[in-house]
Amino acid sequence: MYLTDFGKEIAKASRKILQETDLIQTTRSSYLGMLSGDLKISIVSTAKYIMPYFLTDFLKMHPQVKLTMDVTNKATVLEHLNENAVDFALVSVLPESLSIEKQELMSNKLYLVKKATGGKTLSNLKIEDLQNENFVFREKGSATRQAMEQFMRTNGITTNRQITLTSNEAVKQAVLAGLGYTVAPLIGIKNELLNGQLQIVNIKGLPINTTWNMIWLKGKSLTPVSAAFLRYIEQNKHKIIREKFDWYESV
Q: Which of 5, 24, 34, 245 shows its CA 20 to 30 Å from the CA of 170?
């Protein structure tokens, strides 16, 4: 099936009608003193473990706000930001190619992990023990992959086999299956550490510490909704971290 030229015109007109309907609803809500409109956010895949906690109470406070959050890879996140298709993006490594403003959220800690076994313990595993082992990587361009490659270069670690997967969840499942080691964000492996499925390998130079940043294009004209959300983050981020991520900050 193909859309005809007539169908394209109908679709175009329909979008305009829906946009006008949204504008009417937003205007009505503003007269009633209610915040209303769209909030669009694009986040890298690891950020799905933290961003919902910074949204929950804000959305409860403003039931007329509609959230669209795209969870994708770093390249697509920056593409969304560059095209001004979203209000905010969440990344752990700031882009050098874009002029942005930022609001720091919380730390991002990356550890070397492996499937928990009855073999060598954390205390006696050395860099030389990692030579010619299998390692599971994220795709090229991923901030996690860049950190992992830097760690391996710094320590002169060579791999027997390199496995590349395109999501943190897939990487985690591969390590759980015994396919190799990986450098993983602590935020995404809490349950597996608590139930003894994964084990942190205590190696010099780790953890790697970066920062989660909520970013937006410099000079961007924020909507009432996005401006309100930014104020909410500025005023409440420390409280959210204290209440929701106390276990994380204490590691």
A: 245
Q: Could you tell me the domains of the chain?
A: 5-107+211-249 (3.40.190.10), 108-210 (3.40.190.10)
Report d(CA 218, CA 67) in Å as an integer.
22
Residues 6+ apart with CB under 8 A from 8: none
Tell me the pLDDT tens digit for each residue of 16-55: 776 566 556 555 555 445 699 999 999 998 999 999 999 9
DSSP string, 157-223: --EEEEEE-SSHHHHHHHHHTTS-BEEEEGGG-HHHHHTTSEEEE--TT-SEEEEEEEEEETT----
Element (H, E) at 58: helix 51-61
In sequence order, the β-bridge partners of residue 135 are 162, 181
